Amino acid sequence: MPAAEFDLIERFFAVKKSSNAATELGIGDDCALLSVPAGYRLAITADTMVENVHFLAGTDPYDLGYKLLAVNLSDLASMGAEPVAVTLALTLPDVDESWLERFAEGFFELAAHYRIDLVGGDTTSGPLTLTVQAMGIVPAGQALRRSGARPGDVIYMTGKLGDAGLGLKIAQGHFSCSQQQAALERFNRPKPRVEEGLELRNIARSCIDVSDGLAQDLGHILKQSGVGACLDWEDLPLSNAVKAYIEATGDWTMPLRAGDDYELCFTVPADKAALLTENFTRIGVIEDGPGLRVHRFGTTELLRVQGFEHFSH
Ligand code: ADP
Ligand code: MG
Q1: 65-87 core/surface letters (b: 16 or more CB in 10 A; e: else)
Q2: Which pTM does this prediction carry?
Q3: Cβ < 6 Å from ligand 1: which residues?
Q4: Annotated binding residue at 54?
Q5: Whose Cα sits closest to atom 11 in ligand 1?
Q6: Total domain count for the chain?
Q7: Residue 308 pLDDT more than 60?
Q8: Is residue 307 in a domain?
Q9: Are 71 and 194 in contact (CB under 8 A)?
């Protein structure tokens, strides 16, 4: 890397003091060194955001830094892992110092909140592409997998559904309503459900984070667990803005299809449901028969959305 770029890393990304006990060696050498406590497993994930594919050109770099980290922490949360460290790979079309400064502000706001260290990365030139690799720890045997759902499990989720999808429509100028600020906020700065993921260890039997839409992501649980499900439409947690959108457009499947919510969807054996706090909403049940059904206004229909055809018969 040229010296000028290294100075930029020093300026914007080198952390003076590590804040996580796992970090033995951070930025500056060829590799970082992390320690994993005995009896724990290292959970590792990576997510990339490409301009004009995953975010609109001109997006506030603060939001990009925040969201890039948030979507990775969401993956750790869905496994019940506690985040410890991340690496950051930046491909930049040019060196824009004010852009980097804002990006780093958003990134480190969230990193500091969870005491996560940025321990390394890569910086290259090319079309704007942002990648974080996140590492977390989880006690051996306690990670929440997609494959654990069983018939009779109750399906729950955190937060609300469809706000980020609505936020994208608002950002694109396709919809507006009086409560749009909250939806835009959900789209630009999703809150990773880290604490909730930790709370679900030993309670949930399967878990996923909703990045591509509830129907599709719950579909991964169904497929990997070899089960089906029925959702109760009336129980879905919808904000007033999403309700207003559905009323205006009739598009009632939007909250089931839209991505970017980064809420957790998980299943719990019925006898453990009482262990859950009120942070969660019950949205349906796991069933024997394959496919995803929705019970709505007294009738049950098979949900056919992208990625679902292979479940129906
Ligand atoms: P190498 O050529 O050995 O891979 P680099 O010169 O690319 O190392 O990087 C020097 C140091 O800066 C390394 O510790 C690397 O992890 C870190 N680094 C490079 N880019 C970033 C970045 N975008 N964010 C955080 N650390 C970075
Ligand atoms: Mg090297």
Answers
A1: bbbbbbbbbbbbbbbbbbbbbbb
A2: 0.93
A3: 1, 9, 13, 27-30, 88, 90, 118, 120-123
A4: yes
A5: 28
A6: 2
A7: no
A8: no
A9: no
Could you tell me the end-to-end alpha-carbon distance of the chain, in angstroms, rounded to an integer?
Answer: 55
3-class DSSP state for residue 161? coil
Q: Quote the CA–CA distance of 249 and 155 in Å, as a whole number.
A: 28
Query: What is the pLDDT of the chain when averaged over all its residues?
Result: 93
Asked whether residue 288 is marked as a ligand-binding residue, the answer is no
Do 106 and 212 fall within a single domain? no
Are the CB atoms for 184 and 260 separated by under 8 Å?
Answer: no
Q: Are residues 178 and 107 in the same domain?
A: no
Distance CA 284, CA 287 (A): 10
State the ligand closest to the CA atom of 90. Answer: 1
Identify the pLDDT of residue 3: 59
CATH code assigned at 185: 3.90.650.10
Question: Which residues are CB-neighbours of 172 under 8 A, at least 6 positions away?
Answer: 56
In the reported structure, the alpha carbon of residue 30 is separated from the centroid of ligand 2 by a whole-number distance in angstroms of 4
Q: What is the pLDDT of residues 73-124, one digit of tens each?
A: 999 999 999 999 999 999 999 999 999 999 999 999 999 999 999 999 999 9
- The rounded distance, in Å, linking the Cα atoms of 85 and 127 is 26
Domain-ending residue, one of 110, 139, 168: 139
Kindly tell me the burial class for residue 242, based on how many C-beta atoms sit within 10 Å of its own C-beta (0-12, 13-18, 19 or more): buried
Q: How far is C-alpha 33 from the geometric centre of its chain's CA atoms?
A: 26
- Domain extent at residue 57: 2-139
Q: Where are the alpha helices (DSSP H) in 114-229?
A: 163-171, 180-188, 194-200, 214-225
Q: pLDDT digits over 251-294, tens only?
A: 999 999 999 999 999 999 999 999 998 889 999 999 999 999 99
Ligand nearest to the CA of 132: 1
Residue 305: pLDDT band with limits 50, 70, 90:
low
Compute, in angstroms, the gap from residue 127 CA to the centroid of ligand 2.
23
Task: Report the alpha-carbon distance of residue 275 to residue 204 in Å, rounded.
Answer: 10
